[in-house]
Amino acid sequence: GFMLKVPFGKLAWVTVSLPLLSFIFCVIWSILFHFERATYTHCEVPNFLPSISAAIGGFSPQRHVWRIAIAIHAVPRLLVARMYYRYYQGVLYQWIHFMAAIACWLNVVENVALIGLTFISSAENHVVHERCFVTFMVTSELYMMLTCYLLRSMRRSPPDNIEARSLRIKYQLLAVNLTSFAMAIYFFIRHNSYCEPGVYSIFALCEYVVVLTNMAFHMTAFWDFHGRELLVGPTGVQFS
């Protein structure tokens, strides 16, 4: 029967590009058309960038663009998580496969938490939104750290040049992500404590870097799955 072949690396790249492009659109649109309200804080001091929550959830059409992108990318991202488990089974020691399963479930929970905080705004249900955000941040950081550890220290077969490049980029992105996350916490506390002009925008900038490095980390699947294909046919979905 008919069989559609999709290069898996390109699918992973396109999947992550959806939230990336929508994020860029939301920030730019908020600056151009909702600048005063998007950068307003309780301190009432000047700022030059909106926070992520204001940019993607505070106004229309940004809210709708972001929600559509997250909804579309959710299912393909679950396929990527499943493919990663198959990938881990092929390159890691067998006795560590349970850790690979944990990494994949962290990836799944991160995706579900992202959907939750996207479709349940802070204004609608602050408690649920906050829990989804905390879950997203914890699982995303743990997933990135565990992935780097497994692919560096638990391989039973050496990586090829492309996989080695992918792992090197993963470590660089993880370092920038963790540093930016720590800086975001610092500037958020400083903003609430001293209400200095521009500090909240520096916090927002750190937020941007955290989100962008997280997306870029997931984009490294493009190299991890080079040469592999997603087969879609009458019998379902298969990987090769």
TrEMBL record:
The chain crosses the membrane at residues 12-32, 97-121, 133-151, 171-189, 201-223. Keywords: Golgi apparatus, GPI-anchor biosynthesis, Membrane, Transmembrane, Transmembrane helix. Belongs to the PGAP2 family. Residues 9-226 form the CWH43-like N-terminal domain. The keyword Disulfide bond does not apply. Coiled coil: none annotated. GO terms for cellular component: endoplasmic reticulum membrane; Golgi membrane. PANTHER family: FGF RECEPTOR ACTIVATING PROTEIN 1, POST-GPI ATTACHMENT TO PROTEINS FACTOR 2. Its main location: Golgi. GO terms for biological process: GPI anchor biosynthetic process. It comes from the Eukaryota. InterPro entries: CWH43_N, PGAP2. It is found in: Golgi apparatus membrane. The keyword Phosphoprotein does not apply. It is a multi-pass membrane protein. This is CWH43-like N-terminal domain-containing protein. It comes from Zootermopsis nevadensis (Dampwood termite).
